[in-house]
Amino acid sequence: MTATNHTAPHPEPTPRRALVLFAHGARNPEWAEPLRYAQSVLSERLPDHTVTVAFLEFLSPTLTEAVMELAPTHSEIVIVPWFVAEGGHLQRDLPQLVNNLATRYPAVQFSCFPPIGTLEPVIRAIADAVVATLSAS
Questions:
Q1: Which Gene3D superfamilies match (predicted)?
Q2: Nearest to residue 22, comparing CAs of 77, 68, 63, 65?
Q3: Domain-by-domain residue ranges, the chain?
C-alpha cells in the first residue's frame, strides 16, 4: 500500500505592491517631515502595501536606493510624485530614472501617478484648508 499525499498545493504568493512617495528633497532634513507623515498615514490606510519615501536629491534614500530595497520582494512599484505640478524633473528626470529601473528590474512592474498637486481631490482639499484657515482668523 502506498501513502498518498493529501496536502493542498501551495497557493501562488500574492503580488506585493509598493508605493514610493517621490519628492524633490532639500538640504534641511526637517523639510521631509510632512512627507514622512503622509507615508505613515498611507501605511495605516493601505496595510497590504509597502509605503516608502524617496528623493531626487539632497536626502536619502534616492529613488534608485528605495527600489533596490523593494524590488526583491515586490512585483509592482507605484511612484507617487510629491510635486505641485509637472516641471522639468517630472518631464525629464523621472522618466529616465524609471526607464533605467525597469531595465534593471524587469520582473517589477513600474507605474507613476500624475504629480500629486494636479489631482482634483488634492486641489479641493487645499482649497478647503485655505478657506477654513481664513474663516478661523
A1: 3.40.50.1400
A2: 63
A3: 17-136
Top-level CATH class of 17-136? alpha beta
Q: Where are the beta strands (DSSP E) in the chain?
A: 17-23, 49-55, 76-81, 109-112
Burial (CB count <10 Å: 0-12, 13-18, 19+), residue 118: middle
Query: Bridge partners of 53?
Result: 21
Our CA angle for 17, 21, 22, nearest 5°, is 125
pLDDT tier, 19 (very low <50, low <70, confident <90, very high otherwise): very high
* pTM check: above 0.70: yes
State how far the Cα of 118 lies from the Cα of 81, in Å rounded to an integer.
Answer: 10
